[in-house]
Design goal:
With 136 residues, the chain is mainly α. The protein folds into two domains: 31 residues; 92 residues, Cytochrome C3 (Alpha-Beta Complex). The protein is 34% helix and 7% strand. It has six helices and three strands. Strands 2-1-3 form a three-stranded antiparallel β-sheet, with no helix packed on it. The chain is globular, with a radius of gyration of 22 Å.
Length: 136
C-alpha cells in the first residue's frame, strides 16, 4: 500500500511542473522576434488613395533566408528604411524581382498587396508585440 501511495504522491508534483512549463512557454512566446509579423507600408498609400500594403514577412521568412531579400533584392534590414515605389516593382526591382507574373503574381493584382485597412500606420504588426501574424 505504501508503494501505491508513493506512486500517487508524484501526481502532486505534476500540476506544479505544468505551471512551470506553461510559464516558461509564455515567456518564450512573449519574445517572438519580429521576423514572424506583418509589415504595413503606408508612406504614400493613403495619400495616393489606395489601401496600405501588408507585407507578410512571416510568410516569406519561413520560405526564404534573410539574404534573399535583404542582400540579393536590395531591401535594407530596417523597417521603414526602403523607398519602394510601384514604378520600381513594375521595373522588376525589390518585390518585382519575384512578383512579376511568372514567379509570383504580378503588380497588376493590386489588392493582393494593397490589403490593409485605410489609415493603418506603417510598422510591424503581429510580432513580439501582439503574439502572432496580424489580421487585415
Amino acid at each position: 500500500m505504501t508503494a501505491r501511495r508513493g506512486r500517487h504522491a508524484s501526481w502532486g508534483l505534476r500540476p506544479a511542473l505544468l505551471v512551470v512549463a506553461a510559464a516558461a512557454l509564455a515567456g518564450l512566446s512573449a519574445q517572438v522576434p519580429a521576423e514572424y509579423g506583418d509589415v504595413v507600408l503606408n508612406k504614400r498609400s493613403d495619400n495616393a488613395g489606395v489601401r496600405p500594403v501588408v507585407f507578410p514577412h512571416w510568410f516569406h521568412r519561413i520560405r526564404f533566408r534573410c539574404k534573399v531579400c535583404h542582400s540579393e533584392l536590395g531591401f535594407t534590414m530596417r523597417a521603414g528604411a526602403n523607398d519602394v515605389l510601384m514604378a520600381n516593382i513594375i521595373d522588376g526591382k525589390f518585390c518585382g524581382m519575384c512578383h512579376n507574373g511568372q514567379v509570383a503574381w504580378g503588380a497588376e493584382q493590386c489588392d493582393l498587396c494593397h490589403s490593409g485597412k485605410p489609415g493603418v500606420k506603417s510598422g510591424i504588426y503581429g510580432s513580439h508585440e501582439t503574439r502572432g501574424p496580424g489580421k487585415w
